[in-house]
Design the sequence.
């Protein structure tokens, strides 16, 4: 499990405000620990998938919510 700053360093393609938006949109579901979030390997993999989908297909937030919802149903 890693904290927010390490998560941002590992994913590398997003900044703090964007990550917070992803959490608010429930695209990522980190655990709450005291006043911060704790991320697991699943969160890192999902963030990398989101970055790839946005880069490869240039989808907006609404379309990305739909895509992620469909992927969640498949898996």
Sequence:
């Amino acid at each position: 499990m890693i904290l927010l700053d390490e998560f941002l360093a590992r994913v590398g393609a997003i900044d703090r405000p964007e990550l917070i938006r992803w959490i608010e949109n429930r695209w990522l579901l980190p655990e709450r620990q005291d006043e911060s979030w704790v991320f697991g390997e699943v969160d890192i993999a999902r963030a990398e998938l989101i970055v790839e989908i946005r880069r490869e297909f240039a989808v907006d937030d609404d379309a990305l919510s739909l895509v992620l919802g469909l992927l969640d149903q498949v898996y």
In short: The mean pLDDT is 93. The longest helix spans residues 41-57.
